[in-house]
Structure prediction request, 441 residues.
Amino acid sequence: MREKWKSSFGFVMASAGAAIGLGNLWRFPYLVGNDGGGAFLILYLIFIVLIGFSVTIAEAGLGRYAASNIVGSFRKIHPGLAFAGGLGILSAYLLFSYYSVIGGWIIKYAVTYLTGRSLENPEAYFADFTSQVFQPIFFQVIFILLTGFIVYKGIAKGIEKYSKILLPVLFVLLIVTAVRGITLPNAMEGIRFFLEPDFSKLTAKTFVDAMGQVFFSLSLGLGAVITYGSYLDKKENIIKASVLVPTIDTIMAVICGFAILPPLFSFGLGASQGPSLMFVSLPLVFSKMFMGNLFGMIFFLLVFFAAVTSSISMLEIITAYFTETFHVSRKKATLILCTGVILLGIPCSLSFGVLSDFHLFGLTVFDLFDKLISNILLPVGAILLCIAVGHIWGVKNAVREVTNQGTLSFRLWRIWGFLIRYIVPAVIFVVFLAGMGILRV
Ligand code: TRP
Prediction:
């Protein structure tokens, strides 16, 4: 018997846990900072409405219909589509490998603040720590093994249980951080930067980044939602859950913006530092702020909880496939897979130190994985999903599944079908071409 969530509330908590992660806390603020503040935010919200909800419904519906891992799910629609599932497996493996590098850093920072040390010179601290060989890998391995432990515990007793505990704690910690953020002196400048759009800053890159971020933040395009959907009971309301999860994630992203951007402006730092924003600029703020160490500790604990509930979804994608295809136990599967992730994760980590001069396509291993996943693999995965669900399985069949054989109402089903069949793939394709520099806008 395949495992199931205990309730649809459990599914929503686990899926929201998967969605809310480093995407919200680490990636979103620095993209807002780099890509023009409010203008990026508006574009992001448009893509959430246009793409986010409809793809979430499609993924969850397909997963529950097939009640299988992602390869099995695509194969159930058409045997020739199995490769789309395979692509998802590969993407999840790459994603977890590089996500765990940041996960390890978070643990290191949380431990530093927990032990009461303050970072006087965050820039030097960050550069020194990330360029080492052993320490970052050590913390990365801890992050991978913690994730492995929860996944090994299973769906209801592992993923659902821990998400139900960690998500509310995370929410409270985030609210505390956000209230602190917007009550700092001169916080208004950061709030204005976040909310006031300056459309002159919009470029092709803004569009690519905003769309990539929608996929990344909602965990779409590589089968996380298909996998989580596959553990849903036939009685549950998929449409309601699929509207709830992206909504919660987007609200959390906006609160993250309020937690992180105002402090940066309040201390005159601005927000255009890129990926090191969370590890250099924010600690600098904490070092200058009243009770900064306490807030630093709360903050990195919060980020850690968010990161773990996300990484378990990546590992679950491959674990589900592995256990159901090769008939190995969950324990063995998670052990083998975590070892594989550690092996691929090591070069990612080293790309900040000894491998920093090693470039593929002009990027370090870490940057290559990040770009490859968000800007190529996730959009391609989402297009394949739209074709599979919208054109091969068919809108009628999909609607029958998500409405529990017509017993639930889904008034917008025609619009949903049109979005999935034509609009979403077309928008993704155009943005994708612009991102590759093939189409100039
Ligand atoms: N959404 C998570 C975040 O914001 C990352 C994530 C988890 C993810 N599972 C995924 C991204 C699957 C893409 C696909 O950090």
Summary: Residues 365-402 form the longest helix (38 residues). Residues 119 and 287 are 6 Å apart (CA to CA). The mean pLDDT is 92. DSSP finds 17 helices and no strands in the chain.
